[in-house]
Amino acid sequence: MDVDAVASKVLQSVGGAQNVVSSTLCMTRLRLALVDPDKVDQTALFDVPGVLGITKRGHSGIEVVFGPNAVHSVYDAVSQLCGTNGGVDTEDAPANQEHRLKVSVIRGSHGEEDVGTLVSSTLDADDEDDAHDEVDFLASLLADAEEEEDAGEPTGRPALLVVNGPNINMLGIREPDLYGSESFDTLLELCHTTAHEAGFARCTCFQSNHEGDIVDTIQDAYGVFDGIVINPAAYTHTSVALLDALRAVSIPTIEVHISRVDMREDFRQVSYLRSACLETIAGEGIQGYAHAIRSLADHLGDAREGGSPLTPHPHTGRG
Ligand SMILES: O=C1C[C@@](O)(C(=O)O)C[C@@H](O)[C@@H]1O
Asked: From atom 4 of ligand 1, which residue's Cα is the shortest distance away?
């Protein structure tokens, strides 16, 4: 990944360096506070190599998820282009910069010794198996980003958008008895890994606590993404606007819920979006997203084999 190019594309997509008030980073995300949030071109941001997801923050903040490896170098490059040093959220930032440089080494060299040492000192994994899984995941993200960047032309494989509604970013903290103890970042990793394995060329994850932002994202997906997996969260039970947005773009969509909504309060039994979705998957924890992604891949594959046209894809030429 050419980090300078990535940083410059990120800045262009958010309205230029002059639109950035401050940049900070945490373990996996670049956090930008903006002068004018309307200048963000979300579609362009989704297209930046290495971007795993986007989360809106309040009125004028945006978080761009790069994963624990790439985020540091992108942050440095962004800070340089903005002429700021930004700041580090010390709560969850790694202890020192040496570690992140080591992480980038694993992409090329998979010498067991290097990896073991590297991981035990950087990723805080509980045991060696976890550490190796984590390394494999990081390496696969880098490989994906590079593959996309190098290809620079249509792959013929579909692009996936994963949308999460309000409070899903609180996974792991939020009512763990209902939603499990895995974090939102773990969910993002799962979506990326599964999408890659299922044959998607690209997987972009978006989360917002605001209904209008989700409507905008679904509209912007038209002509850009071939399939959507959505957990509308509480908007499931209230939002005609999200239903209309899905109908407007008519992109094949699967609805997913972490908990068993059908066994909960009466008001959760209603889904305004269900009629615009191919399928609803509920009660499988975060693995429900993996199920939904695989099912969507099957559907898109069947649609192609059966000769039914996928959504036109003027942007990338896919579909
Ligand atoms: O926020 C959520 C999460 C949810 O969509 C689920 O994933 O189980 C179920 C919704 O009722 C709730 O408002």
From this structure: 233
Q: Is the ipTM of this complex over 0.95?
A: yes
Q: Domain residues for 285?
A: 159-306
Question: What number of other Cβ atoms are within 10 A of residue 150's Cβ?
Answer: 9
Same domain, 181 and 293: yes
pLDDT band at 265 (very low <50, low <70, confident <90, very high): very high
How many of the other CB atoms lie within 10 Å of CB of 167? Answer: 16
Q: How far apart are CA 39 and CA 37, in angstroms?
A: 5
The residue out of 82, 116, 147 marking a domain boundary is 82
Query: Could you say which DSSP state residue 23 is in?
Result: E
Expressed in angstroms and rounded, the spacing between residue 191 Cα and the centre of ligand 1 is 18
Which residue's CA is the nearest one to ligand 1's atom 2?
Answer: 233
For the chain, the straight-line distance linking the first and the last C-alpha, in angstroms and rounded, comes to 26
CA distances from 302 to 86, 161, 270 (A): 48, 19, 29
Q: CA-to-CA distance for 115 and 105, rounded, in angstroms? A: 9
Average pLDDT over the chain, rounded to an integer: 79
User: How far is the centre of ligand 1, averaged over its atoms, from the C-alpha of 290 (Å)?
Assistant: 17
Find all residues with CB under 8 Å of 118, minimum gap 6, and list them: 102, 103, 105, 106, 135
For residues 93 and 31, the answer to whether their CB atoms sit within 8 Å is: no
Please state the domain count of the chain: 2
Angle at 131 between CA 128 and CA 137, to 5 degrees: 145
Query: Which member of 75, 82, 179, 289 is catalytic?
Result: 179
Q: Tell me the pLDDT band of 316, cut-offs 50, 70 and 90.
A: very low
pLDDT recorded at residue 270: 97
